[in-house]
């Protein structure tokens, strides 16, 4: 669906000012039942913002949003944020809620909250200011004008008082630190209006004193994943300057004609450019400052394609504390201190996945015949530099250190991949272990982490072998057959075999993990472990085309649905003493619904599992968003608040807070003295009138 800039969206509202959600509230009056009758309770258990979990979840929400609905046959142009549950409840939930929640949360973190270090201090931004002999703020402003010009976006419409980050912290308090400015910025004929905070982000800052000022790969990597997926979406085609209509990219030179500009639209193209600028600076900082030399016990630079782990491990450590300098308006890092030098598998796969996605955008290797011309146009020297020619030829021996987006990303990508292989893969067992202390490999295999490592490796193999990634990561294509790609496929296959032979139980469920030398876990299986196994086995099927892995994924899915689904309350229990939905669990469940609909559902005459009927999966998907994400009341549910993208418009003269009358409040009315950002919280799930 082509997204429009705020001023167009604001003036195209439907005539009706108040629309019911179209779904009955769990516990409110329905079918004559009293509101006091036993109902589902989904209270907030923890509202601290976990960057890694949120950004992981919202990445899965994105992929399970518009791309999923469109792939199942929806015409995206029929969606309207102010027409809930049309054309169907699933279409609206996927195409509007899942997708737009995902997008807005990313902007909250990377442009509004201040949860990290300011882009003005990014390595590339500093270098540009020095080269142009300009103050840093002036150089960054000039850069934003250049990016706007490249997509035909009016300079005067660039959002005011942004806080663009180049790297993000591990967490923080998502309560706004001051009153959100909901005053009228622009009025519309139907009584709706654009509030100031939609165009001026100054009132949307979080409290810097409550931020976890720690750099964790899974956190800044999770943000990187969101940025890479959206940048790929926004910059994957061209548009006409006069009509703003998207046009297919046929050659990398299409944008050099008078009426064609980069980006799928002017507004989306601008966001894609900002995201790419942030990614570029992030990668340069990671490569040059955040790798840890286990021998020297100090932070150092990555070696990239020249890195050989047999000479000593140099990897991304779990926690690097930041001492800030400069003003709160544009903080920089004064000092970096390693607080936890371990390599954790979660950190590594959540860096591998986005780096692979971005590699697919920036890839300029001549032998890759699957390149998107629109991406080539973005990285042809204007507005982003071309790759160093030595780094895109077929000879790795002549590779050199370079600062273009392709080269810095490739350096990070290859070093992370080699460390996952050397530090986390137990060759004898054929499985990934959760941690390595820089000297010794651990012996714990976690089913969830291993499963998602397989999915990250699947995307890596596609990217390094020159096949489409992003929304097209399921498409068939001929790959280059690189040594790295072949090794990734071997790792995927061996881990899949390990799941099938060592983790699957007689009841079809998988164990939560495995201790090498001892055997599989004997405790009660969790929902999270099942989701990780399904994602991993499906990744193995997609990567290798081996039907045995699909069959195994279907078996685990059936067992999961049979064991965890509550038929009365229409929720999955989590398999723990207390049902608790974290962002990690929510993201994984969203992802599993997607792969079940796309790859595991009954599509053969002899496939009759009720849980894998497409209608059953869709109903579970809708129930999950309705009951767990949105929640049964305004005070409950994972999604803390919502923006106008999901229908909660601002109406002059009306009481604000929840104008669309669903169970997700507007940002300024979401709790605390000033409101809460539109992000995910951890919730408990209690059934009946009391606790489970």
Automatic annotation (TrEMBL):
Q: Superkingdom, according to UniProt?
A: Bacteria
Phylogenetic classification of the source organism: Bacteria, Bacillati, Bacillota, Bacilli, Bacillales
**DNA-binding recorded as keyword:** no
Q: Which organism is it from?
A: Geobacillus thermopakistaniensis (strain MAS1)
What is the annotated signal peptide range for this record? 1-25
InterPro entries in UniProt: 6-hairpin_glycosidase_sf (IPR008928), 6hp_glycosidase-like_sf (IPR012341)
Name the record gives this protein: Extracellular membrane-anchored protein
- Membrane among the record's keywords? no
Q: Which PROSITE patterns does the entry link to?
A: PROKAR_LIPOPROTEIN
Q: Which UniProt keywords apply?
A: Signal
Q: Which GO terms describe its biological process?
A: carbohydrate metabolic process
